Records
---
Amino acid sequence: MNDTIRRRHGGAASLALLLLLAWPAAPASSEGRVPVHARAGLDLSRAAATIWAPDAYLVYLENDEPLDSHGAAIRWGYLYYSPTLRKARVYSVRDGKILVAEDLGMKFEAPPIADGWIDSEAAYKAADEGPAREFVFAHDARLHTMLLLRGAIQENQPDRTTWMLVYTAPNFPSLFVVIDAADGTVLRTWRG
Amino acid sequence: MGHLSGCRAIMGLAALAVLVAGPVPARAQETEPVTVERLRPKHEKHATLRFLRENRDFIRARYDLLRQRAGGERGEAGEIDPRFLAYQEMLQDLFSAQGSVATQNDSLARRQLLASITELGSLEDQLDVMDSLLADQRTRLGVLQADFTGRQRTALIVVLSGYPSKAGVDRVTVTLEDGDTLTVPLTDPHRASLRKGGVVQIFHGFVEPREQVVEVAIIGERWPRGTKGFVTLDPARDRLTLLRLDLSSVGPEGGAASIQASKWLHDPRPYTGDD
């Protein structure tokens, strides 16, 4: 990674320092549950969100349980924002059911995620066939977090919806991979 | 909560609506009993959006930056839903077919005057045309119903039935999970209707398609304060769930938890006229 990128992502690198020590080291017991990709719970969460607020739109999603090796998880969290209510509400979906529905409890006015985003499987493949594979093999790393949002990560293209994948490795800085959610192009990587 | 407050107007009307109907609508799916518990059921807490919460300051700071760089793209008008245009075309087709029927009717009158037995056979053809028209109309109405009433969002109706013999009820309150409390006063006509086997609708509104606890309380002179019952429901997505609270066997000693509750799903199939 060159210095320019390192400087540009100095703030982002600090993310890694905050990274989720509370997460389980290995995937939680799935109890026979089948991991699914991110789009699996989208319709259900949207149906609930539009009842909460008719103008609600999706602004963010993230895996709520550990990911498997193909970008699937048994639970995903979907965050919606309502301009009318000026509130955000999260729906966490597992096994085709909403397991958690709660207001976010903090200000989060984010732009809507653009339609047509690639699913977590395709985003995973884009990273795995690109910069992540070497990191995973070299450092015994694993895919820790996948999140989808618009604008916040790709600062020079704020209209772009991106996946961000975070790979963690014991005793090594994490690898961040940003992928264009429209076509799967790897936009940037950094360590931190 | 937004969705509950948004339904207040409906609820207000609903509270006045005394439905003198049987406890289960004719087109309903199987009724199943629901347990009314004395204590609110406890559920395991599940963490969600951990990365966002852990890194919220960073992500929010990035969004704050975005707002300072607002773009100037112009909005564009959306396309008209092609279904709305299709409805009109379907109606026009039907009108033109109706013209054919009118012509057929004129022809029929003339032929009746002739009273020719050989022409009676053509009556069948004309009836076929009318049948076809009726079928087209039914199709059109089916499309309309499917597009509008068929696009049911997740909703809940709560009705009362029966009336306790041991103590009068002044009010019933319903509280949805994360929601406001709706208080429904029971008037004399309500009570009379309940005693005669009618039902009173006390709530009709949208609910999230997820497992949730509905709190019910009965308020009256002889009822202990704070007597509540808790019903766990999992309203089916995009369906209308009906919850009936039968008060007939309820008494102050058992409180709201002694309500006999049952639920069923409204049958969304378009009415065909064959039932």
Note: Chain A touches chain B through 52 residues (CB under 8 Å).
---
Amino acid sequence: MGDRAMFDRIAGRVLIPVGIVVTGFLVVCFILLYSAIKNVVIKDSIGHANNLAGIVLKSTRYAMLKSDRELNSAIIQNISQQKGVEHVRIFSKTGIVAFSSNRAELNRQVDKKAEGCILCHAKKEPITTLGNMQKARTFKNNAGEEVLAITTPIYNEPECADAACHVHPASQKVLGTLDVGLSQDATLTSLSSIRGQMVLFSLLTLILTTAGVIALLKMIVLVPMQKLQEYTERSESNSHLAHPSNLPYELDKIAQSYYFLKNKLDEVEPDGAKTTASLHEEQ
Amino acid sequence: MEQAANNEAGTADQTASEVRAILRQGLLDEIQALRRFSNRGLWALSLFIGVSTLAWRQFPFLPRPQQLAAAMGPPPSTQIISMVLILYTFSAIILSLCRMMGNMLHRSSFCHVGYLSVFYLFYFLADGLADNYWAVFGAGFTILSMESYRIWTYCNENIHKKNEQLAYLERNGRLPLDDSFSEG
């Protein structure tokens, strides 16, 4: 009975659709906006990771041309000590870890079906070129942290093929692969901060909209309706009633009609008030 | 002569009571139909939750998005799908509010389930379902809740009106002349 009364009241009838519409639309926009922001931030991270992979390749190029393993290892160790760098590895053409920031991984064979390798090695003839987004993959490391890794092929160049130290045939397009892993902690913290601010903003908007609707509804409709109701109830017991004041236009029209009818009734039937009261008692 | 008049009066009474019974049955049938129709929004919402469960499981009966993209061509980007989803949600809410204002009977709930399923499918094809699942779910839940509320209030008002007409018929033996009748 209480629920039914709530749905029957003007406030209930207005607030339920407004609540559903505003909440639902805000939630949908919030999720889509957050998803769009997340995509932009992740694309940005992948762009930065690709740049870093390019820097590593340029830094190690001279050492590779000279086949200086010690210098190569030192460069990779130094880069991996940079904050946010999770790992740096260089694989040979056959998938053996030639250089790594983690010495325990050295000379290990990598499964070509593993995530990050399968993308190029899915078919018999491996793919040699990849777009920036295709080079990226995300995974969780042993500590449970999110890592963004970039796998970049190391292409053969005329200097490599002609080098005196370790000749690669000119027909070999890819000499090996560089794998750089970056911690996503900073990115996830930024995203979490954006999410928190958006939730707060959405909640404030929701509260303001609902409060605004309630306030306007009360001021424009509910209070004048209450006045009109009190006026009609007062008129049942009082035969000489003054015209109601301070009512909005539509309600004022109703009150005027009621006032006019009541006066006419009182003229025709002086004990009209009694009649009205008796009608209520009969009901 | 008097007997003939009595017979005529008896026949007229009988016809009147038959007409009353037909009208009564008609009103009762309409009330029954409105009661059935008032649950339509909830049925649509249940169907949508079923589709959403399949979407949550990444449509296990469908091939992988990459295979589908290879067969059908590249899907639209997630940004375009999201923009269309916002436009659709906005239009559907405005339409529902207009129907609510106009007190219109419109059986549109189930087609919304179809549109929303297509959004799930497009996000699935664009490999963006995980990120945008709750957006489609929120949009669907909002639109179908609005439609349920609209249908439910429409049916309740009309059931109330039909009940008043039924009471009037029982008292006076005929239906009121128009909708603006008062009791008694």
Note: Helices of chain A lie at 2-8, 10-65, 69-80, 118-121, 158-162, 185-237, 249-268, 272-282.
---
Amino acid sequence: MKFNLIKINKFFGEKQVLRDINIKLDGNRVVGLLGPNGAGKTTLMRIICGFYGTSEGAILINNRKVNSKDKKYKQMIGYLPENNPLYGYKLKGLTNSEISRQIRKWSVECGIGEYLDQKIEILSKGYRQRVGLAASLMGNPKILILDEPTSGLDPKQIIEVRKLIKKLAKEKLVLLSTHILPEARAICDRLLIISRGSIVLDKETTKIRSLEKKFIDLTS
Amino acid sequence: MKNIIWIAKKEWFGYLVNPLSYIFSGLFLLISSWLFFQDFFVVKQAETRALWTVMTFLFSIFIPAISMGLIAEEKRSGSWEVLFSLPISEVEFVLGKFFGSLAYIFFIIIMASPIILTVGYLGDPEWGLIFGGGLGMWFLAASYLASGLFGSSLSRQPIGGFVFTTLFLFLNNFIGQDFFLSKISSPKIADFIGYFSLNLHSLKMSSGMMALNDIMFYISWIVIFLILTVMSLKLRDK
């Protein structure tokens, strides 16, 4: 699947928060979005998931222009925000039998099969994150957007969630934002660095030699 | 339609499983019964107009408390970010929230029926008047709720929604009071201002002067405030 963002600009009032964002993604892989605080990562992710519209520019899927507020488009997207509130997978337009089937499937995939009967409040942060991930996978979206998916997890949980993301990327396009450079290097196939609302680097991870130095040079 | 029903059900079940909503409705009934029966045995008239007056007053505090978190809480917790990444429109979301909460308020009004049955048992009331008053109450509550939903959409903190709606309803109640309207020299202007008081329309309905005009006023009020709520949600993009 081809997923392209063409000349995306976003204004909030007079303030421009995204400038001419051009991203061309193809196939199932993990794409990392890196940037300092306030660079525009979350705004860009919110545009892709349909929470915000664009001020200018277009989103293309398989070279066809789509409206990010459109219900059909939203059915293709799974979104896990940083603070992970859980909300209605039933709104994804699934039938009851399909909901049961997918709950079974994604709970096993995300390693929460044995916790299905437990209340979310008593689960650890790592398991809550898995529940959020499973909820975002309901409807089997083609594009998965994860906003800092390992934030606040302990090292063991981080390793488990990373493995899970890698596994999911075998059949989905995963776009994740992170502050942690070693994490980006460990799980992302391609990296985008965003600074002051513009994409300043777009490269395959293996082709970036010193990520830390490059990040500081491009974002300072 | 499916999405509206799902949101409304979620809201309704939220009230059912929350012990606070039972305490809330119990408190509402306790206060309204106490205030109503305090004068009922003194006046000795089998009518419920005093009950509607008491309920109007209580609604202006209880409904902002019910509506304050409807949208503000979704914003505060961040769940609206997930919600609007799902295939649901702002209109469906607002209607679902409105009808789910309206069902709870309807439940409170229904629970007040033993008070009315007591009046019927002790005397011989005019049931047409009681029906008109009950309908007026229902429309009044729905209009308060629509205003409260809008108030809740303006803030990220539920308390902000509560303060806005309570002040707004207080002002709306104020412009319908005789002591205010009598101070306006032009009767036409007084009529015009008084027309926008939600309470005056329900008072008319409870005194047997039920007109399509009043019902249309309430429906228009509800629609306008629901549209304002949708617009306020869409403003997140600006």
Note: The interface with chain A takes residues 2-3, 6-7, 10, 77-79, 81-89, 236-238 of chain B (CB under 8 Å).
